[in-house]
Amino acid sequence: MSLQVVSAVSNSSLLQPGFSLLNFDGHVFFFGQKGWPKRSCPTGVFLLDIKQNELKMKPAFFSKDSCYLPPLRYPALCTLRVNAESDEYQYIIHGGKTPNNDLSDKIYVISLVSKNSKKTTFQCVEKDLGGDVPEARYGHTINIVHSRGKSMSVIFGGRSYTPLAQRTTEKWNSVVDCLPSVFLVDFEFGCCTSYILPELQDGLSFHVSVARNDTIYILGGHSLQNNTRSPSLYKLKVDLPLGSPAVTCTILPGGISVSSAIVTQTGDTEFVLVGGYQSDNQKRLVCNTIVLEDDKIEIAERASPDWTPDIKHCKMWFGCDMGKGSVLLGIPGANKQLISDANYFYILRCKGAEEDNEEELTTQSCSQTSTEDPGDSTPFEDSEEFCFSAEANSFDVDDTDTYNEDDEEDESETGYWITCSASCNIDINTWVPFYSTELNKPAMILCSSGAGHWVHAQCMDLSESMLLRLSEANVKYFCNEHVDLNKGLQTPKKVVRLKKQPMKPLRKKTTMKLTTPTKKSFLRRLFE
């Protein structure tokens, strides 16, 4: 086992605990950044390019018929072959945390559409499920089992938020272990069935699961209710006859009390277990070899790599399986660094150079591997991880168009799923396109009030014609909440008064004022 230091160039802040790695055709892709995607990579999926011990990122793209995929941290992942005759496979993603700390209960299927040295395109499809649909969760596992010519996925474990009826103001965002139910998901028909097994008494999260044919082995895991790491080794066997499926569980000896461990596959039946925690504040530096043969499992301790002093003395670590016996590990950077959230990264290679061939890996592994960052709203004593399954890795890619986050403005305040106003009704879980120009994100427009802020066009009751007119015209726009204020702050325009022509004065009526003598003479004449 060898350990190699890797430098992250200008984008280490994207690689935070909870990320996932996808492996397509020997190329490794990063998914699950902390925070909403930026304009240079709206998909949030990047190709990892490692050359000369430097790690760079290239944005990946989605096809036009793809659905929206939020950046999910700590989801469950596994691979699914398209069919038995083809070598093509897809990735299944279930659950996970959004940047708003909301939990997802959706399931997505990602497949590779095209790839060249300049551009990689994926297709992302959301699957509709019915029946006993698993609740929103994270820190769980998903595996594919094969029995009697059929295939199904198995979901187990994880954590979720306390039910609404049981929440209090002080512990509104507290989490609990999910019930220890086993879910079978049929992707052909979209049906889900849950099973309660008497051998599984406590909920587990951040455990390790490896699958071969119709059997899944569950190792370790942390229980919030008891604050323990299970030393048990569970064996789930799934039978898929023509009728109803049958699921059985057996408790085997020889388990390992560990959580947040990473499993990487080094052979057709061989895995290597690295990392994790054996207690709340103690890392597990021991490595193990797991061998699956026929209907049994063997776990043995193996020589550990020469851990660096930084790894030995750090309190937390995180990482993910890269495939072909390689693991990407990260540890927090020193406080003296200029970038506060920068991390140090290593590549652990569990296979020798002579063993590193293009063998077909027919067995799956699923592990959850990283530590919850202190910035999240809910503190955890145990590490927070995700589930992953992949094959080989290779980093011979062109480094043009490498993503550099320094070229981007900070969109943490201008994400597509913000609450733009008091009347905002845009919800990432229920949103559907409203304008013909929308695909997987709501249309937004900049309000010019103050320093400026983004609002949803739909929340502002803008018609499509008006939205197009505003996007083409070079004019300032003010949202409904600031349009009146903006009018009040404007300097009144100077009104040019018309010069009025003076009107001619009217002639005064003349009245004859009679004096007393005149009156007498007048009367005298009148009566004469």
From TrEMBL:
Naturally occurring in which organism (per UniProt): Grus americana (Whooping crane)
Biased composition (Polar residues): 362-372
Binding site for Zn(2+): C420, C424, C447, H453, H456, C459, C479, H482
GO biological process per UniProt: chromatin organization; V(D)J recombination
Protein name as catalogued: V(D)J recombination-activating protein 2
UniProt domain Recombination activating protein 2 PHD: residue ranges: 415-492
Subcellular location, principal: nucleus
Pfam families according to UniProt: RAG2, RAG2_PHD
Stretches the record annotates as Disordered: 359-381
Keywords: Chromatin regulator, DNA recombination, Metal-binding, Nucleus, Zinc, Zinc-finger
Compartments (UniProt record): Nucleus
Gene Ontology CC entries for this record: DNA recombinase complex; nucleus
CDD domains named among the record's database cross-references: PHD_RAG2
Family per similarity comment: Belongs to the RAG2 family.
GO molecular function, a single term: zinc ion binding
Signal peptide (residue range): none
